[in-house]
């Protein structure tokens, strides 16, 4: 049996996002189609008990690590995740699936009433709280799984909660060294809330860590537009331009070396080399002129 996940204590003095940061359409669908969409999006299937017309949701997925109905780690998912992950640096377990299919989710939500959507939102909030607690305890793989479950439940029109869920999941992925996927989650968070400073900062850091310096600087500058006093962004806008200039100069030199090699290969049959050609830059215009020097050594 998997371990039980303790229910998180409620801290009403802070928002959900603040607690996390402290620790780092109405078309008719036939019944069968609706069941398939629900099962695909939420991991839940519907069944009608004998002599009743009421739908009852039952868990039909055990690979995600946590049973959202009982808050217990699934026998396969939870224990396998613990055994396979070993540490935060471990390779992502093969069974893990963090796909959030928003197209299917949109179709599924077309068949829901506002009351049902709000109930899903409430359940997503509970999963997020549990994920936040696990994140603070260093259980980053399990917290990632809970954020994914919450995203599959949280209605698409609840933009702020979804932005926070994507940003939180990005933080968990960063701890697991899944930087490319974390970048994707930051971008999704910013699609829901373009002015989400914490998501911008997180993406800027990830861009810098993956040598995407221009993109990183752009995000930091956006942060300063929103929060002119942000010290992290201010420091980065001073630190990054010299690094970008140095990188560009290095790339230019590498390109020139490759061009010289190509030129020498073309000129060699004629007894010439690139040393026979001298490039001079006009300081007034910045343009280059090429002079032929027949006596240059080859």
TrEMBL record:
Residues 13-39 have a biased composition (Basic and acidic residues). Coiled coil: none annotated. PROSITE patterns: TPR, TPR_REGION. It holds the Pfam family TPR_1. Residues 1-125 are annotated as: Disordered. Residues 89-102 have a biased composition (Acidic residues). This is TPR_REGION domain-containing protein. It comes from Anopheles stephensi. The lineage of its organism: Eukaryota, Metazoa, Ecdysozoa, Arthropoda, Hexapoda.
